[in-house]
NAD-dependent epimerase/dehydratase family protein (Rhizobium lusitanum), 406 residues
Amino acid sequence: MKIAVMGGDGFIGWPTSLHLSDAGHEVHILDNLSRRWIDTELGVQSLTPMDSIQERTRIWHAETGRRTHFNLIDLAKDYELLKKWLAEHRPDAIVHFAEQRAAPYSMKSDRHKNYTVNNNVNATHNLLNALVELNLDAHLVHLGTMGVYGYSTIGAAIPEGYLPVGIETTDGRTVSQEILYPANPGSIYHMTKCLDQLLFQFYAKNDGLRITDLHQGIVWGTHTQQTRRHEQLINRFDYDGDYGTVLNRFLIQAAIGYPLTVHGTGGQTRAFIHIQDSVRCIELALKNPPARGARVEIFNQMTETHRVRDLADMIAKMSGAEVVRLPNPRKEAPENELIVKNDKFLGLGLAPITLEAGLLNEIVDVAKKYAYRVDRSRVPAVSAWTKDLAATVNHDPEGKRLKSVS
Ligand code: USQ
């Protein structure tokens, strides 16, 4: 297939591009390189040293003989350029990662809220709009989030996208319908993914676009089979308080002798998936498109659930790291249960990589190798969900001002 990977320079976009290229597909990366600019804005860098996208694709070609093509296009701003590119290349499928993906970044200030909404919603809408305008029947696979469902304890498994409901009619009968599971975003970022869902619903219904939405959990790990092939193909690896995600952060913190930063009681239960499984799921989704005219296909892209404090305790035991409980800068349920259905990917043959010491140690080793690149002052998560919470943020979890809430 000819596949366009929108956001193909990012944390999942890059390993996905290599995975698909390795599988024999013709891969075109479209990216505005915003993630690199945000590193510059925040004054942080990936733990792993990353080459330019042009250099990465050159190395991939030298290693494998396969070409991935890079195009500098901003989906949210360059509508005409995007349309022109799509008209010229007419891809069979599009994988859409081209969104600002960090919840803490989206909550930093009013400017960051505006940026996240404008970027994410416009990028998705421009893409859908262009597909219709060009009469292009490319299968669109979008990376959504488990966070669209929210994290309240409901005592039932979260279904894959749709909830069967009974509605009482005016004449007293009950009619059955399947509706999108009620959206319950926990950040501006998560809210944009809820808005995406509505855009998809409309365009699938009105224009018959073939769309798959992947509700992904928190990704852990850094290497995939392809990024391991050459030092310069290495994936980015975020540790900072805005872009680092919880399990990877704990592993890096353990590697550099930084206390593991548990927010609140650590009773938050979340869904997880290894990055290798993430790229496999995207390939499986591409192989199983919905029919034209069908409703949006939704998969829960996760393989297991864990409570934050259990992860911290496990990594502390493995590494001897200290655990600190910090005032939570986020407005979220302090404790929640989470049961998630993921039968669809399992049914398509996904054999999940679950948390086990071997892979966790591999990540600690990567972190130790590049520990010299870490700026410890960027480890604390200081982006607060409200002005009140901002006043309680601990800016120095390893310093004398340590405030434990346990
Ligand atoms: N947390 C800590 N300590 C830390 C960092 C995070 O206790 O040092 C806690 C947070 O308070 C939260 C949980 O860990 O309760 C998860 O936080 P996270 O930063 O790992 O994940 P999140 O902000 O939810 O976002 C990440 C990705 C996002 C993706 C989402 C999937 O950045 O792109 O959509 O995971 S999900 O969480 O299932 O919505």
